[in-house]
């Protein structure tokens, strides 16, 4: 009896997921207007620039030189990460920090029409600071920055994908 119920559940679960519209996200699909474009970033050597460009290439993007006729334009004019004090304890020492990662992205078609107006994206993570474990605090902050950067790549791609 239990076996039959498990088999029935195994058959009905995929059907239920498909019926509710669930689908794996997969790779981003850019608008056809953005398939051939210039790609400008505030810091072209940053990890964000490298990772966004690689993700765009996987989505069918072809990078062309600035000034190329018939090319769209993807810009990331702002790419900044900051660590700020969030709370201070009773002894006037920092107890929590927040890491904020801010990017602005915009895209325009070859004819100059804005496909994605300049859009700010802000991600942030808070973390506690324990002065008895000060050596690990920098490693934790670096880890948070890397995670935010990875997530930011996905956010930029989603915005560009929605520009269709």
What does this entry look like structurally?
With 164 residues, the protein is of the alpha/beta class. Helices cover 36% and strands 34% of the residues. It contains 3 helices and 5 strands. A 5-stranded mixed beta sheet has the order 2-1-3-4-5, with helices on one face. Strand 1 (36-41), helix 2 (47-58) and strand 2 (62-63) form a beta-alpha-beta unit. The radius of gyration is 22 Å and the shape is flat. The protein starts with a helix and ends with a helix. The model has no long low-confidence stretch (mean pLDDT 86).
Please specify the SSE layout and strand pairing.
Blueprint: H1 2-19, E1 36-41, H2 47-58, E2 62-63, E3 72-88, E4 94-108, E5 114-128, H3 134-162
Parallel strand pairs: 1-2, 1-3
Antiparallel strand pairs: 3-4, 4-5
Order of helices and strands: HEHEEEEH
Helix-and-strand structural type: alpha/beta
N→C terminal distance: 51 Å
Helix count equals 3
Q: What does the overall shape look like?
A: flat
- Sheet bearing the most strands, described? 5 strands, mixed
Tally of DSSP β-strands: 5
Strand order of the largest sheet: 2-1-3-4-5
Rounded mean pLDDT score: 86
- Specify Rg, calculated over alpha carbons: 22 Å
